[in-house]
Design goal:
There is one protein chain. Strands 7-6-8-10-11 form a 5-stranded parallel sheet, with helices on both faces. Strands 1-2-3-4 form a 4-stranded parallel sheet, covered by helices on one side. The chain has a two-stranded antiparallel sheet with strand order 5-12. The chain has 2 domains: about 100 residues, no CATH class; about 180 residues, Rossmann fold. The longest helix has 12 residues. It is α/β, with parallel strands linked by helices. About 25% of the residues lie in helices and about 20% in strands.
């Protein structure tokens, strides 16, 4: 008998016909998902007192399933997304030779790779507003430009030609950050983020620019122009690389550790209403920036 069964709810599946009618008290059922609630295709309303553990991107999950973690190079410790993470202080000046070499050729303002053109976050409308003030090249199905996203050619293009990359989420959900943002953090370009996560919990300070720190698209665009015209200020956004690195830690390792623990609550706890836990209040539809 398996110690645990994972249920990935991104796609619908017939639970009644898939699991035994009599459950073993020594087998845990795990609710697992990496996508936001809008991508949950499985119906959860009938699954009361069904799941024992949750394994999602949310910080209130039993096991946090993250694409990447920031690790302190000196201590080797992961920086966990607490309310007030302990990051190292941001220096007033930071020199990055790689950025200096690329700087003369960084003549374009911002790039955005996107395949979903109508979203709950209205990110496409936000981008249209920003395009009134700065140049934004849109690649993929929703724009006139093309480049295979994730290819070495596109990576070089972003590194060498652009100052900023738009990492805009399709929905504004608590704690949700796409894998694309972590990939961009490894490039020589500053991410401009827009989503429902409290980015201060997940990313080092002054390593990104948050759309919702600004009142209007024009105010944001003016700041982007300022940073793009000042190499000293631009390089400060890469200070964190001296102290931190991104690593992947498998959530399945933590799950295995949990399964080897003998605490009574692990064998008896259950989520009385997983639908409410997962859906209620987890996303918002109103942005804090006016557009």
């Amino acid at each position: 008998m398996y110690d645990a069964i994972l249920f990935h709810t991104a796609q619908p599946f017939p639970v009644i016909n898939s699991v035994p009618s009599q459950r073993s008290g020594r087998q845990l059922y795990v609710f697992a998902l990496m996508e936001p609630p809008g991508e949950t295709k499985h119906i959860l309303s009938d699954e009361r007192d069904f799941y024992n553990l949750t394994m999602t991107y949310r910080t209130d999950s039993d096991i946090i399933w993250a694409y990447n973690w920031f690790v302190d190079k000196q201590t080797g410790m992961r920086i966990l997304p607490t309310e007030y993470p302990k990051w190292r202080p941001v220096p007033n000046i930071y020199n990055d030779t790689a950025i200096w070499r690329l700087w003369p050729n960084k003549t374009k303002t911002a790039a955005w790779f996107v395949s979903h053109c109508e979203t709950l976050s209205r990110r496409e409308q936000l981008t249209a507003e920003l395009q009134k003030y700065i140049d934004v090249d849109v690649y993929g199905k929703c724009g006139p430009m093309s480049c295979p996203n994730g290819s070495p050619e596109c990576d070089r293009l972003l590194d060498e030609k652009y100052h900023f990359y738009f990492s805009f989420e399709n929905s504004l959900c608590i704690d949700y950050i796409t894998e694309k943002l972590y990939k961009i953090m490894k490039r020589n370009i500053i991410p401009v983020v827009y989503g429902g996560a409290n980015y201060k919990q997940f990313l080092p300070p002054h390593s990104y620019i948050n759309v919702e720190d600004y009142s209007t698209p024009e105010e944001l665009a003016n700041y982007l122009k300022f940073v793009a015209e000042n190499p000293i200020e631009y390089m400060r956004y890469f200070w964190w690389r001296e102290h931190y690195e991104l690593r992947f830690f498998s959530p399945f390792c933590e799950l295995c550790q949990r399964l080897h623990q003998s605490q009574y609550y692990l064998k008896t706890q259950s989520y009385s209403d997983i639908e409410r836990w997962w859906l209620q209040g987890s996303c918002r539809f109103k942005s804090r920036i006016k557009f």
